[in-house]
TrEMBL record:
GO terms for molecular function: structural constituent of ribosome. This is Large ribosomal subunit protein bL33. PROSITE patterns: RIBOSOMAL_L33. GO terms for biological process: translation. GO terms for cellular component: cytosolic large ribosomal subunit. It comes from Actinomyces massiliensis F0489. Pfam families: Ribosomal_L33 (PF00471). Belongs to the bacterial ribosomal protein bL33 family. InterPro entries: Ribosomal_bL33, Ribosomal_bL33_CS, Ribosomal_bL33_sf, Ribosomal_zn-bd. It comes from the Bacteria. Keywords: Ribonucleoprotein, Ribosomal protein.
Length: 59
C-alpha cells in the first residue's frame, strides 16, 4: 500500500470536477499533472439543470 506522501506526488492524481451552475453535482476523473499543471476546466453535462455547463477542478 502506498503512503500518503507518495499519493500526493502521484503523476495521475484523482481530481474532483464541480459544476459551475451551483448545483453541487461533481464528476471524478484523473489527470496527468505533467501535461496539464493548471486547473482543469471541462464542459460536461449537469443532470440537475439538464444542460452542458463548465466543470472546474476543485482541490
Amino acid at each position: 500500500m502506498a503512503t500518503r506522501s507518495a499519493k500526493a506526488k502521484d503523476v495521475r492524481p484523482v481530481i474532483k470536477m464541480v459544476s459551475t451552475a451551483g448545483t453541487g453535482y461533481a464528476y471524478v476523473t484523473r489527470k496527468n499533472r505533467r501535461n496539464t499543471p493548471d486547473r482543469l476546466v471541462l464542459r460536461k453535462f449537469d443532470p440537475v439543470v439538464r444542460r452542458h455547463v463548465e466543470f472546474k477542478e476543485s482541490r
